[in-house]
Amino acid sequence: MFISEKEIEIRYAETDQMGIVYHANYLVWMEIGRTKLIEDLGYTYAQLEADGFLSPVTDLSIQYKAAMKYGQKATVRTWVESHGRLRTTYGYEILHEDGTISATAKSEHVVVRKGSFRPVSLKKIAPDWDAKYTEVKRCKD
């Protein structure tokens, strides 16, 4: 299993009135982590879009464990949890600087054609990318 890591410096604007990171910012950090993972594997989401495809989120779950605050640094760990014919599930851990888990999450995605939103197999449009996901995924079939 391949795990990508991205450090995020927590900005004041990402916190709520209590000085705690607002929950929706974790979703942004997950996107940053997912983009980094894709780039670490040698691909770009921007190229997928340029080729006429999108990869929308179809399901998301997140479990908050320990609050993060302004001035801290978060590390987003991202991996391919599972990858099938149409769906890819990414796994995430968001960590405090000392390694304490702040949140864990999973997001499920399907590749679709930009114009029609019809699902398409990654294997059909990017066979090398599909093979890389199959190689690095956590859950082996």
From TrEMBL:
Gene Ontology molecular functions: hydrolase activity
Keyword Lyase: no
InterPro entries: 4-hydroxybenzoyl-CoA_TE (IPR050563), HotDog_dom_sf (IPR029069), YbgC/YbaW (IPR006684)
Pfam families: 4HBT_2 (PF13279)
Keywords, in A-Z order: Hydrolase
EC identifiers of the protein: 3.1.2.-
Family of this protein: Belongs to the 4-hydroxybenzoyl-CoA thioesterase family.
The name this protein goes by in its record: Acyl-CoA thioester hydrolase
Species this protein is from: Sporosarcina psychrophila (Bacillus psychrophilus)
